Amino acid sequence: MPNAEMKRFSHPDEVREFPKGRLELVKIGGAMIARAIFEPGWRWATSVQPLVKTKSCEVPHFQYHASGVLMVRMDDGTELECRPGDVSFLPAGHDAWTVGDEPAVVVDFQGMVDYARSK
């Protein structure tokens, strides 16, 4: 039987930084959970796309939106405005950006293992 675990994002196992953003990852219970902080002016297409070199974000996300506003545009044109308290599922194929003057902070339960890694 596995042991109980507890970790804090203030002491992540890994940190990845990219223009106007930061990803803090914790490994717990065999899973990788991430807190992403997207500063005002952050946009996937200009901050992460140059690292991963794909047309749009190919990582699916299952996220809790803790603060700020994150706008998401799926490749099919569907748009979601994610606000604090929202839970979103975003399949692969999207762009996203921070709206306003407050950082968008999300906790992601899926998809961040390889997010923002250079190819």
Itemize the secondary structure elements and their pairings.
Elements: E1 14-18, E2 21-28, E3 31-38, H1 44-47, H2 49-52, E4 61-67, E5 69-74, E6 79-82, E7 87-90, E8 94-99, E9 104-108
Antiparallel strand pairs: 1-2, 2-3, 3-9, 4-7, 4-9, 5-6, 5-8
Describe this protein's structure:
The protein has 119 residues and is mainly beta. It has helices at 44-47, 49-52, and strands at 14-18, 21-28, 31-38, 61-67, 69-74, 79-82, 87-90, 94-99, 104-108. The protein has a single domain, classed as Jelly Rolls, CATH 2.60.120. The protein is 7% helix and 45% strand. The strands form 2 sheets. A 6-stranded antiparallel sheet has the order 1-2-3-9-4-7, with no helix packed on it. Strands 6-5-8 form a 3-stranded antiparallel sheet, with no helix packed on it. The model has no long low-confidence stretch (mean pLDDT 94).
Tally of individual helices:
2
How are strands sequenced across the largest beta sheet?
1-2-3-9-4-7
- Gyration radius from CA atoms, angstroms: 14 Å
Q: What is the CATH class?
A: Mainly Beta
Q: On the 0-100 scale, what is the average pLDDT?
A: 94
Low-confidence stretches: none
Tags for this model:
single chain; 119 residues; mainly beta; Jelly Rolls; three-stranded antiparallel β-sheet; 2 helices; 7% helix; globular
Question: How is this structure best summarized?
Answer:
The protein is mainly beta. It has helices at residues 44-47, 49-52, and strands at 14-18, 21-28, 31-38, 61-67, 69-74, 79-82, 87-90, 94-99, 104-108.
